[in-house]
Structures are given as C-alpha cells and as structure tokens.
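Protein modeling request. Please complete all fields; requests missing the sequence field cannot be processed.
Requester role: graduate student
Desired output: 3D structure, token encoding
Chains: 1
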Amino acid sequence: MKPELEQVDLQSSEQSFRFFKTELDAFVPYWHYHPELELTLIIRGEGTRFVGDSIAPFSDFDLVLIGKNLPHHWVSVSDENLDRQKAIIFQFNEHIFTDIKECEHFRSLFEMALRGIYFENPSKEIITRILSFESLSRFEQLIAFLTILQELCLENKVLLTSNNYVPMNKSNLAEAKFSRVTNYVLEHLNSSISVNQMAEITHMVPQSFCRWFKKHSGHSFINFLNRTRIERSCHYLLTTSESIQDIAFSCGFETISHFNRTFKSLKGCSPSHFRKVKNKKALIRN
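Delivered output (286 residues):
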C-alpha cells in the first residue's frame, strides 16, 4: 500500500477518457494514485475501501469519485465463498472540460473529489447508465459520460478524507516501506500485530516508526490497525451468523472486552446493536 504512481495513458487512447471493466477473484492491495480523476462502481464485491485516511466498508454498488493524486484502493475481505469481484472504472483528466463553458459547474465536483466522494444510495438511473455504458457507440459514450457527471453533481455526497488530510509527497523508498507495513497488516489481521513487529519490518526503532507511520497515513498505527479490524468485523457481523466472540477473535482482538470497547468507540454502538439495526434495515429495503 505505497501510494504508487499509476500511469494512465490517455494520450494514445482513441477517447478523451478511459473506461474499463475488471473482474477478479479478489481486489488485492494496490495503494496507488494518479493525476487523473477516477470514478469507480463496484458491481460485485465486499471488503474495505481505503481512500487517503478514510477506512470504510464497501459492498455491491459502491460508487466513489477519486480526485487527482489521492491514494486509494479497495481490498476484498478474505472469504473463499465470495463470488468473483467486479467493477467498472472511468479515468479522465479534468482539463478536458475547462474549455466547455457548459461544464464549468463540474469544477466544484472535482474540487470536492480531492477528498474523495462517496455517493450514498446512488439513483437507479445512474447505476443503469453506468452498467449499460459498454454497449454504446463511442459518441453515445461521450454523451452518457457527460450525463453521468451531471447526475453526480445532484447525488447525495459524503466526503471521505478528514479535513486535515494532505497527500504526502513520498520517495520511492518511503512508499515501498509503507507498502510493506500496510500489506502486512491487511494479510495478518487475524493475528497479533505489535508496533515492535512493524518497527522491525521497517528497520526502525518503535518511537520513530510511530512518528513515521502517522506522517504517512494520517493515523497512528494502533488507530489504523483497530479501524481496519473493526471494518472487517462489520462485514462478518452482517454476512455471517458467527458469534460476536468468534468474530472478535477472527479479526485479531485478543479479548471480547477490548473488541466491544473499540467497536463502540469507532461505531457509536455495541456490535450486537450494529448487527440488529443493520440487518433490520436490510430486510426493510428488500
């Protein structure tokens, strides 16, 4: 999870923007950024979404607009029973709209996207428009893309990163080190992970590691670890019938009391209340 610069080649493309679909067994850690904006619709998938210093769950029809140079990735939950993970992605330069006066109002959307925008409960119309995009001619796709951006201006928006988050300019060495740490955490959430372990991995003393991690992630290491574990536990609470104690242990918490305290601190309620309320809302929607 280094913010790795992804090269998006729009110069040689036959279109003003890039559109593609991806289908994988799982969305694996790939912490990256690029100067292009990116609109991502998760068609099918479950896991944790990382955008800047935002850590949140994602599921089917998760729709997010990522601003330029904002680090991000979606990481699937480890579950062998999950279906293939699918997503539709648009990548584009904001400057393609700068000379079109009718598109000037997109600028405020793109400025908001610098913090990442989650579109809460996107309309059926915009989801349908994105899902049918591939079947259109190239000219029809241009019109549809402009329409999608217009509709996004009207959708309910949630800004993802915190007010004080600022993407850091990192050296390749620092990026590689940050990648090792965060990927290790994501791959070993069910195990005991300590600051001393991470300091050893990065060849730093614990105090220096903690300062370094905070500077690069916007979180203290313990906060990042706990938030990631709690988001993973939320997935299990809503998609399995496992006991809360078993879920706590499978997400790396050594005691149920620590899990309950951390969960309530981050989610504002107990795990049992979270499961009951969320499942009730799901039943009402269905």
